[in-house]
Amino acid sequence: MKVGLTGGIGCGKSTVVGLFREAGWRTIESDAVVRELLATDAEVQTQLRARWGDAVFSEGAVDRRAVAARVFGDEEALKWLEALLHPLVRAHWQTAIEQAPEACWLVEIPLLFEKRLETLFDLTVCVASPPDVVKDRMVARGYTGAEIAQRRERQMPLEEKMQRADHLISNAGSLEFLKRQTTRLIEQIATA
Ligand SMILES: CC(C)(COP(=O)(O)OP(=O)(O)OC[C@H]1O[C@@H](n2cnc3c(N)ncnc32)[C@H](O)[C@@H]1O)[C@@H](O)C(=O)NCCC(=O)NCCS
Ligand SMILES: Nc1ncnc2c1ncn2[C@@H]1O[C@H](COP(=O)(O)OP(=O)(O)OP(=O)(O)O)[C@@H](O)[C@H]1O
Fold first, then answer.
1. CATH number at residue 70
2. Residue 104 marked as a ligand binder
């Protein structure tokens, strides 16, 4: 079973991934794979340095905030970064799944529908939170309102993701509420 998980920025994707993992699922988070590539992949770092120089490095490591400032307001720059990273991210999760194709896999992909990857999965799940709730949670994590808005503008509207997904999880309330729905969904998938 292969499930693709998506949702808007800060809607709770990573939290849902953690709940599936606790339930014994194998999980992959695209955002975490990207962070790993930026932190450790020499070729990716060489490409970033060739494009933006030392301005996107801090003490030898990629400065993600500096990269974000360059790409989220510049469509061409974002396209370039996506072309560099997306094939590597996709190869990462496809290779992992190939090694245990019969296992239950949950793959978190923020741009699941934007990049038309949904056909690669048996089921899709969207986790959704209202914009004001997202803002409070993301500001608490150090993002500014402008940074959140810029990322959101680069994504399909959340309502459309919700309509396209096979299952919806509402993360408008407490963590307990989120956990109850996710547990119920995991049971439903297991017995389907
Ligand atoms: C620009 C980068 C360095 C900023 O890193 P940062 O740690 O601040 O953000 P993080 O990676 O945790 O992403 C946070 C959220 O931003 C949104 N986001 C990230 N990349 C994109 C994108 N290409 N388009 C739209 N939204 C995006 C997602 O909702 C994501 O969950 C990083 O997001 C990046 O390299 N993005 C390009 C690769 C990509 O498309 N990743 C997302 C799916 S594979
Ligand atoms: N129901 C909730 N109640 C309180 N805090 C929550 C709840 N759900 C998520 N959070 C917190 O909100 C923040 C965003 O959640 P999470 O990281 O799971 O979202 P995400 O969709 O993966 O975010 P991103 O788009 O940045 O990758 C985190 O700090 C998380 O701990």
1. 3.40.50.300
2. no
